[in-house]
Design a protein that fits this description.
The chain is of the alpha/beta class. It has eleven helices and five strands, in the order ααβααβαβαβαβαααα.
Length: 276
């Protein structure tokens, strides 16, 4: 029986070119409302992945996202946000896209059709058994992703797949299948829409929950964030004001001296413990 891609089925809306702007926006919004519910149904699989991932990362393992097109770009996006948000070295969460960095802005012809390139791309990072590879493929049939996951499993590397189609080939290639079935896209086959939104939500969940479990958040604050601009310096300063009861200028000097909220707080508490 041929594999049926729900994500490629005809849109529930016809004659889009005849709709007003308001109608288009309302219809897109109505479809977007379905995404969170689809992600909710996939939470048990996401939980299983995060639990396994945390265990591996505590022992030095890394997280790799791998995908093509929109799926690949979203993996790279999530990986790129981990250092500034949680103060992690970029080597801990890595995003790979078929066609390389060029494909982030421009399509690379036939890059996603190569079944062996994904594994070669991963090997450039000396991937090992403590690492985890998450393949992202809305269609569930991307050869670049499937080939990479199959090779990873042969080498004892934990794998997961994020897809918009149930029982997809990419799910069968992974240890953990995260299937968020968002239904047909508003523009038929345009997986940058609901599928992309769901993928971003799941990637957010995976890395945010993992970083919290790894101690990169205190209370509900990004205490390890990089102080890369004035906004973040101000945010960190206000965190120290609230936590330590310092005046704003004193908190800011302390923050800039130590480079992160956590380091500043730890140093302040250590000094005052000695004084006591």
């Amino acid at each position: 029986m041929a594999f049926v891609k729900i994500s490629e089925q005809d849109s529930l809306y016809n004659d889009l070119e005849k709709k007003s702007v308001g109608e288009l926006l309302r219809d897109i919004n109505n479809e977007d409302k379905k995404v969170a519910l689809a992600v909710e149904k996939a939470l048990p699989a996401v939980e299983k992945l995060v639990t396994e991932l945390v265990s591996r990362m505590k022992r030095g393992g890394r997280l790799f996202y791998i995908g093509a097109g929109t799926s690949g770009r979203l993996g790279v996006l999530d990986a790129s946000e981990i250092p500034p948000t949680f103060g992690m070295d970029p080597s801990w969460v890595i995003g790979l896209i078929a066609g390389g960095d060029t494909a982030l802005r421009n399509p690379v012809e036939k890059a996603e059709d190569d079944t062996t390139q994904g594994w070669r791309d991963l090997q450039e990072f000396n991937i090992g058994e403590l690492d985890t590879v998450v393949g992202i493929a809305a269609s569930g049939t991307t050869p670049y992703v499937i080939g990479a996951l199959e090779d990873c499993r042969r080498h004892g590397i934990l794998t997961a797949a994020i897809t918009s189609n149930p029982d997809a080939p990419v799910s069968q290639a992974a240890d953990i299948a995260i299937e968020m079935v968002v239904g047909p896209e508003f523009v038929t086959g345009s997986s940058r829409m609901k599928s992309g939104t769901g993928q971003k939500m799941i990637c957010n969940m995976i890395t945010t929950a993992t970083m919290i479990q790894l101690g990169r958040v205190k209370g509900n604050k990004m205490v390890n964030m990089q102080l890369s601009n004035a906004k973040l310096v101000d945010r960190g300063t206000r965190m120290l004001v609230a936590e330590l009861g310092l005046e704003y200028d004193d908190a800011r000097r302390l923050l800039l001296l130590h480079g992160s909220v956590k380091k500043a707080s730890d140093a302040y508490n250590a000094d005052h413990k000695q004084e006591a």
